[in-house]
Amino acid sequence: MSSICHIEAFVAGRWQVAARLERRDAQRTDLWGWLEYEPPYTDEALGARDLRAVSVRYPVSYGLERCGSLPAFAVDLLPQGEARRHVLARLRRDGRETSDWDVLLAGARNPVGNLRVAEAVTPAEESRDGVTLGEIVERGDAFRAWAESQQLPMTGSSDTGGASPKLLMTEDASGCLHADGALPDERAFRHLLIKFPRGRTQQDAAVLANEAPYLEVLRALGLRCGAPLVHQAGTLVVPRFDRLRVDGAVVRLGMESAYSLMGVSEAGARLSFEALLEQLAQHVDDPARDVLELILRDAAALALGNPDNHGRNTSLLKHADGRVELSPVYDFAPMCLDPDLIVRQTRWRTEPGDVDWDDVVRAVSERLPGLLPVDVLVPALRSFGERLGAASEIMRDVGVDRDLVTRVEPRIRATSAALCALRAG
């Protein structure tokens, strides 16, 4: 397989070859390879750190960047979970190698965000009639296999991450759904992620069923949320916030995970909240707002029983006008129910053990002096703690399963009390 891949960015309404990754001799342990922006692209975007750059860590420049491993932004482009298994099966069927590099070149044709790998893009048969949501719901996670048996184009439908089976689908103006990579932009009306349970247990089903009302709890608590989710018979419909339709044209927004923001390529690596907040503050347009938002999200996660906070469940969102901000909340569910016993991957320095909110305040003051003064941060946390005290009632109002509300109520009370007990002095 080729030792070079080209990264394309969707900027100003079209795909452009932005950069190239060159993999060096695999036997060398001191140098994985190089990243270099293409000169014509650099001429137009020199110095950019927004959606025109492959990563906020690699602003557009004329220089060569040495890479000690596959860069973290490229790991973001890799299909994960069920999607990765589809790509690996295809590579093995064709007698090809199955390293991350091979998966990147074969599978990164339609990731979320505004980047893709040129070598992974293949001519796709255009979808004509599409399917209804009911047809997807009826077949559940077996839909893709059924669609392929019916010779329906499914290009780009599985180029996404996460352990749960997912489909990237695009809705046309008549309401029919098509594989995301098989519908031309001019026919696209709305972009959706269709999600199925991680496994076959009742707990898996409950996690998925409660993800939609959990988002409404977060919305009621004042956190940044996208459009409401819809759960129907074991299928979750998630409107995508990285795709917009503006004046009849599709706009692809950039997304970059916390792993990429931190420069971490290792799958499943643990992250430090303190270090993550530092990096977040350096690269968003409104650091105080987004740092506070991320802290409050973690308080909500602790209270509502969502330990699934690995570095791909938090991302930057990069807008077409150059703004960079923390994305809306996504993949926020009661993972305390998951039979695999999910543990927190992003932690405060006082963990394992209870989060010490006084120490969180100290850490923010030490690591980000002047950004969120104590007399600003503490009242904000206390105010959130007061709102959190009403979370059980909110959960019942928005349709969270009653037994789940009962299960997390002690967490809610404890987190609310800890935040309300903070003092600015």
Explain what this protein looks like in three dimensions.
With 425 residues, the protein is of the alpha+beta class. It folds into three domains: 4-120, no CATH class; 133-245, Phosphorylase Kinase, domain 1 (2-Layer Sandwich), CATH 3.30.200; 253-420, Phosphatidylinositol 3-kinase Catalytic Subunit, Chain A, Domain 5, CATH 1.10.1070. It is built from 14 helices and 17 strands. It has helices at 39-45, 72-77, 81-93, 100-107, 133-139, 143-149, 202-220, 258-262, 273-283, 287-304, 357-367, 374-388, 391-398, 402-420; strands spanning 4-11, 14-23, 33-37, 64-67, 115-117, 166-171, 177-179, 190-195, 230-232, 235-239, 243-246, 249-252, 254-257, 271-272, 315-318, 324-326, 346-347. A five-stranded antiparallel β-sheet has the order 4-3-2-1-5. Strands 7-6-8-10-9 form a five-stranded antiparallel β-sheet, sandwiched between helices. It has a three-stranded antiparallel β-sheet with strand order 13-15-16. A hairpin with a 5-residue loop joins strand 15 (315-318) and strand 16. Helix 9 crosses helix 11 and helix 12 runs antiparallel to helix 14 (402-420). The longest helix has 19 residues, at 202-220. The radius of gyration is 22 Å and the shape is globular. The termini are far apart.
